[in-house]
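Researcher: We're teaching a course module on how sequence relates to structure. For the next exercise, students receive a sequence and then see the predicted structure as tokens, so they can try to spot secondary structure elements on their own. Here is the exercise chain.
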Amino acid sequence: MLTTGIKFLYLVLLLALATGCGKKIIDKGPSRNNGKTQKLEKNLTLVVNEVVSLTTNYHLPESAVFKLPTELKAKYGNAIGKKIQIFYNYTNAQEYEFRCTYSSTNKDSKLAFENCETSDGYEIISNDQNINEVWFPVDKGTRVKLELINASGTHMNIETAYLVDWK
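Model: And here is the predicted structure for the students to work with:
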């Protein structure tokens, strides 16, 4: 009886090896998000919260083109006297492709678009141009950095809303 059990086990192992031989194994690399694919939304909202930090970084998972927001909104806190700069294709303190500046308006909850300029200081778009017609590129692996320039302890939380076309 013992030999019958061993023979059966031997046959099961042979069968397992036979069905496994010759199959191509594909290593897909480390799994992310438990094997789920991350869905990249067409509407992207970035937030800077004065209580937490004066800067926020968003790492770009893919390359994309996007439209700039015409204004930023303070979800809470007072925006009067505030200025925010947003750096695109940002890699470190001195390396970015361009940055856009938004400044407070006479409304306490909004910051209006001022301009965008390259890292060399050349203006590429200003507030008198229609920014809704221009698509701007961002590169995979870089960051978008939001930086509140003149904080005042109002615990302001600013949201930026983008229309994004991921590549």
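Model: If you want an answer key for the exercise: The CA atoms of residues 98 and 119 lie 5 Å apart. The helical segments are 2-20.
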